[in-house]
Write a structure and sequence with these properties.
The complex is a heterodimer. Chain A is mainly alpha-helical. Chain A contains six helices and two strands, in the order H-E-H-H-E-H-H-H. The radius of gyration of chain A is 22 Å and the shape is globular. About 15% of the residues of chain A have low confidence. Chain B contains nine helices and six strands; from the N terminus they run ααββααβαααβββαα. In chain B, strand 4 and strand 5 form a beta hairpin. Classes of the chains: A mainly alpha, B alpha/beta.
Chain lengths: 124, 213
């Protein structure tokens, strides 16, 4: 049997190119999904401060690699800061989520409004 | 030359098999009309006997959907938000009216999930880990079904060698290890998600953050 390499080549390169197109990830993910898992399944290994520390080191790593911070990471961090009583950090992280991803605007603005309302009720 | 022939016939068989598995191309009309930018993943309904399945599965979905180019709302933050608003369980959360999701979360599309089967089964000489979930992406404004798929994957382990006795011991050992040290289900779920979301004929279309080169 005689195989014509030139006929097969485009076929192979399509397969290869198909592989390349999906392999490159847009974001650096670090520990985010593992922390979500742990916070539900092994909560003892993912307390608030541990999560804050790991996510912050992921943010540094993403910057070092020149990768965009993935959707949800700043908002998740904001929830952790709020749980730790660090309101200004929390607010800053929410604003970063909104700046990176305008799709989150309605949800995050709603969180700001509810937080302001809660603070008012506390003062009364 | 005969090696090359074998290589290509193997390749052809793989292509044929994958061709058989994907029946007809998905009808993307609704998805193309809707062009969602953002997806909120509602914590899954559970039809399996593994009580932890919904939140294990929830932890594996952000990455493949975001890498497909969509803004994925922070799953854990959304779960907290829904719980604080009087919806303690995934079953409750799956009943929120779409207009409320639009008003308070602002998502373009909502992903509803139903877990059909989850976890490890011990089958005499090996243990099998299964993940099987059906996913439905729905337009928040119109309620139209945009895309649906089944994420399914299975892995077998426990072939410890040494005949039947070795296999029995091997299977039990993997089961014990899995339940106490490392849970194999997230990795199986990730494989299932990757195949379902990136399938060429029936996968999800690219979102706005995955721009064609």
């Amino acid at each position: 049997m005689n195989i014509n390499y030139w006929k097969v080549l485009p076929f192979l390169s399509v397969l290869l190119a198909g592989g390349c197109a999906t392999n490159e990830e847009i974001y650096y993910w670090g520990e985010y999904e593992q922390l979500i898992y742990d916070s539900y399944i092994n909560p003892g290994t993912a307390d608030t401060l541990t999560q804050i520390e790991k996510l912050n080191s992921d943010l540094q790593e993403a910057e070092a690699l020149g990768k965009k911070v993935a959707p949800g990471i700043y908002a998740h961090l904001a929830l952790l800061y709020a749980a730790d009583g660090k309101d200004s950090h929390s607010k800053q992280a929410l604003n970063q989520e909104k700046a990176l991803y305008p799709e989150s605007k309605i949800f995050i603005d709603g969180m700001f409004i509810r937080a302001a309302k809660n603070n008012k009720e506390k003062q009364l | 030359m005969s090696r090359l022939v074998r290589l290509f016939s193997a390749l052809a068989i793989i292509l044929l098999l994958s061709g058989c598995a994907t029946t007809t191309p998905y009808d993307y009309t609704a998805l193309k009309n809707s062009k969602p930018r953002s997806i909120v993943v509602i914590p899954p309904n559970n039809n399996s006997i593994e009580v932890n399945a919904p939140y294990i599965y929830l932890s594996t979905l952000t990455r493949p959907l975001a890498e497909k180019g969509y803004y994925v709302f922070p799953v854990s933050v959304i779960d907290h938000f829904l719980k604080e608003n009087g919806l303690p369980t995934p079953a409750d959360m799956n009943n929120i009216p779409l207009d409320k999701i639009g008003e308070h979360i602002g998502a373009d599309a909502v992903l509803y999930i139903s877990i059909q089967d989850w976890g490890q089964k011990y089958q005499i000489i090996q243990s099998t880990t299964t993940v099987n979930a059906s996913l439905r992406l729905v337009d928040v404004k119109t309620g139209a079904l945009l895309w649906e798929t089944t994420a399914i994957a299975q892995s077998s382990s426990g072939d410890g060698g040494g005949g039947l006795i070795g296999s029995l011991v091997g299977a039990i050992a993997t089961q014990v290890l899995a339940s106490t040290i490392s849970d194999p289900t997230p990795d199986i779920a990730r494989q299932a998600n990757y195949i379902a979301i990136n399938n060429e004929e029936r996968g999800l279309l690219d979102g706005p953050y995955r721009q064609k080169q």
